[in-house]
Amino acid sequence: MASISGKNVLDNNYRIVHDEDYVYFPLIEGTEINDETVSMVPEENRRKPSPKGHSGAFDVIGDIAIIRERKDGNTQKIVEFIANTIKHIRTIYLDHGVTGEFRLRDLEFLHGDDNPETIHRENGISLWMNVKKAYFSPRLATERMIISSRVKENEKILDMFSGVGSFTITIMKNRNVDVVALDINPEAIKALEKNYIINKINGKLSARICDSWSEIKNIRGMDRIIMNNPTSRKIDFDSIRNALKKNGLVNFYEINDVEGIAERMSAFTNEGFMPIDKRIVHGYSKTSSMVAMEFRRVEE
Ligand code: SAM
Fold first, then answer.
1. Mean pLDDT highest for which of 46-55, 71-80, 123-132?
2. Which of 26, 76, 195, 208 has the most CB within a 10 Å radius?
3. Does the reported pTM lie above 0.90?
4. Which domains are seen in the chain, by residue range?
5. Whose CA is nearest to atom 21 of ligand 1?
6. How far apart are CA 158 and CA 93, in angstroms?
7. Gap from CA of 292 to ligand 1 centroid (Å)
8. Per-residue confidence at 1, pLDDT binned at 50, 70, 90?
9. How far is the CA of 260 from the centre of ligand 1 (A)?
10. Protein residue with its CA nearest to atom 22 in ligand 1
């Protein structure tokens, strides 16, 4: 926190901005400072209002806002906030939770037009989806960009739980790679195939509706396996090892507490996978987080 003589002098109503030469800190009016590089804070740097006390209470997917179920009775206030401030929102749903093998959201219609189909834009791609029929989380956008930036040209990639193609399409848009994308939900694969076309991708994609743990037994020679089904605890290490080339990589996601993540890291290590990276993608509950882990297959 910026302070002078122990007093906070930052005006939190404005954003901290920068240009090529300087970082500009918005100071509370009247702050005395012995510096010649002081300038007026432009009004365009004012932060957008957020619903007080409810930040992070909803996700925006395309022109749909999805409010997470809450016990404090403030749902209606959040609906009004969204309807009044986020102009491009067409539909608002209340999310009663994600369930089942397909990880579908139980959505209650609250406001606007009850049409669950939308096109979400992130990282320069467009993802078409029906939010009632296939799972998608906008909170992994940065993670998808990180993985995409680490992928090398001509990699062979297995996306084991592809959903509508959020990882697959981001990577294929940025790199010339071959991808095998698997999902047990036919609606997810339908969306993925549509997204391949919408985004004008040229690389080779094989999209299959199947149980990944059965299908992986037929797959060999992968440079990278992406496993983003973070609430599932199932792992078949032999199948992953057999599907990967030596030195191939695994990008594994899990929602768990600190001990659970440490156990997972040890389990991979004991199975001959070297930990390369571990980072928190986002918080999930008071005790657990969504964690990204990366491993390299090292043993013969
Ligand atoms: N990776 C996608 C993303 O980030 O948008 C989707 C993640 S979603 C949490 C998990 C996906 O795994 C769902 O689309 C679900 O249908 C799929 N799934 C769950 N169990 C599966 C299995 N045994 N085989 C193939 N897909 C499965």
1. 123-132
2. 195
3. no
4. 1-41 (no CATH), 58-115 (3.30.300.110), 139-297 (3.40.50.150)
5. 184
6. 33
7. 16
8. very low
9. 21
10. 211
